[in-house]
Amino acid sequence: MLRFYTLMALFLCLGSNAQITQEVFESYKLQDKRTVSYYIPESYDKQQKHPVILTLDAEYLFDQVVANAKFYSRFHGMPEAIVVGVHQSMPYTRDLDSSFDPHNGLPTEDGKRFFEFLGMELIPYLENNYSIAPFKMFVGYDVTANFGNFYLFKDVSLFNAYVSISPTLAPEMITRVPQRLSVMNKKIFYQLILEGEKNEKTQEVLALDQALKTLDADNLHYFFDQYPNADPVSVVTYGIGKAFDNIFGMFKPISPKEYRENILTSNEPVFQYLADKQQSISNLFGFKKPTSLNDIMAIYAATRKKEDFESLKPLSDLCKREYPNTMLGFYFEGEYLEQMGKPKKALRTFEKAFSMAEIDFLTKDMALEKIQALKADFGY
């Protein structure tokens, strides 16, 4: 039986209920112990699913990952994540955990044990004790970044996203990583990050980037960022925020650029863009994200711009579900009925909208104007 010995609980200034705990995890697989830090979100709710972000080199990376997870969940709609950091600063621990055979590039016996510790002990522990979403992300730096690639060699990748910061690549990784990513049935986000300061691994990382850029794989979302002014230390700070931006971009509100370049240029119904966005989130993260007013208004504006009035009906249905006490749903439905040539039904629907709470730019005066215009058409 696994045993856990709690050393301390650190309540830091990360929010009123934010909690960072640190444990010594005694591992059967390792026949050794590892110190593990956990960040549990302020509003953790066991009724909701939370992504997991697993971070090696926790002494250096954990705090930065937690800060970015908090920032993106607060301002960009990313779901609140549980962040787990494995400490590896004890003498030789990091090198042994991430070690690989210099000839074939595969994990040594020490590397295999650490591989099983993460996948067969630490992750199951989280799944048994917290409400975990299907989405899991791996973050590593240098040799620990390379170590994350070994999980791509399994039939089903343990992780959905990989953040590989300035990796020291094992032999054959330049060909093996693209080969594995090209045949993945699971959607994978792969973020490769490199400093601008040249060193002995620069050419190998650039070669891996070129190999990954040539892939035509439907399930791969690949990102590469190189920072000209960064050295091997500062690249961590440069890269983690951009990685979050890339991987969790679907949670960001629809931007003016996205509106112009993706929605207005699409040949599909306007509402389909929002439906696809919501379905992608549900498929990846295992829960439905509430639709932001920003996204609703962007879709509404596009229906008018493109005269795609059919999209007003599903948009109105969505608003009735998610904003049931406001004017949104009935106002949009009224416009839909008006455009479909059903003025009497539109009049009754605008009257319902008038009786409900104002929201955003929609006011009772706007509903009243619609009501009066339709009554004038009927001669009331």
Could you outline the blueprint of secondary structure elements for this entry?
Layout: E1 3-10, E2 19-27, E3 32-40, E4 50-55, H1 58-75, E5 82-86, H2 93-97, H3 109-129, E6 132-141, H4 143-148, E7 161-165, H5 173-182, E8 188-195, H6 202-213, E9 220-227, H7 235-247, H8 256-263, H9 270-285, H10 293-305, H11 312-322, H12 328-339, H13 343-354, H14 364-378
Helix pairs in contact: 1-7, 5-6, 9-10, 11-12, 12-13, 13-14
Could you please describe the fold and organization of this structure?
- With 380 residues, this protein is α/β, with parallel strands linked by helices.
- 45% of the residues lie in helices and 18% in strands.
- Helix 12 (328-339) packs antiparallel against helix 13 (343-354).
- The protein contains 14 helices and nine strands.
- 37% of the residues are buried.
- The chain has two domains: 3-251, Alpha/Beta hydrolase fold, catalytic domain (Rossmann fold, 3-Layer(aba) Sandwich); 256-378, Serine Threonine Protein Phosphatase 5, Tetratricopeptide repeat, CATH 1.25.40.10.
- Strand 6, helix 4 and strand 7 (161-165) form a beta-alpha-beta unit.
Properties at a glance:
380 residues; alpha/beta; Rossmann fold; Serine Threonine Protein Phosphatase 5, Tetratricopeptide repeat; 2 domains; nine-stranded mixed beta sheet; 9 strands; elongated; disordered N terminus
